[in-house]
Amino acid sequence: RLYALCSATTFVFLSTGPTVSGSLVKGKVGQNITVPCFYTVRRTQDITSMCWGRDSCPVSKCYRTIIWTDGWKVTEQYNSRYMLKGNLPMGDVSLTIVNAEEGDSGIYCCRVEISGWFNDQTSNHKVVIEKARISTASPHIYTSEQTS
């Protein structure tokens, strides 16, 4: 019995594995940051609901949800700084974070709900927002060092 349980767990892991992807997005405080997420739409029937959430993607839905769409338009939005500016019915569900803050750093989950067991397309994206640094060295110093 234990062996059957292990093999079933392995099967579930393998079947969900290929759909998980991700990216690293870096930006500075005050910028608008876009976290990429797309799914394939070949025909109208492919248009589907999706959500964005904070932290890694759970087994279903999104954790600490930011946005839901029905595939055509945003249906739930929990913060006006988080928006979807892409062409939703064409599968562009990239998240735009307006006027980014350091607190926006962390992992974001993009989950596209595809019908059937374990078919959802999930991706985890790491967002790093840094304070804008003011450089103390002028470009002239670098130029003179390189030429001397």
The share of residues in helices is 10-25%
Calculate Rg over CA atoms: 20 Å
Work out the number of β strands.
9
Largest sheet data: 6 strands, mixed
State the strand order across the main sheet. Answer: 1-9-8-3-4-5
Instruction: Quickly give the structural class.
Output: alpha+beta
Measured between the Cα atoms of the first and last residue, the distance is: 75 Å
Mean pLDDT: 82
- How much of the sequence lies in strands comes to 25-35%
Oligomer: single chain
Shape: globular
Would you list the SSEs in sequence order as H and E? HEEEEEEEEEH
Task: Give the low-confidence spans.
Answer: 1-19, 138-148
Q: Tally the helices: what do you get?
A: 2
Keywords: Disulfide bond, Glycoprotein, Immunoglobulin domain, Membrane, Signal, Transmembrane, Transmembrane helix
Family: Belongs to the immunoglobulin superfamily. TIM family.
Signal peptide: 1-22
Subcellular location: Membrane
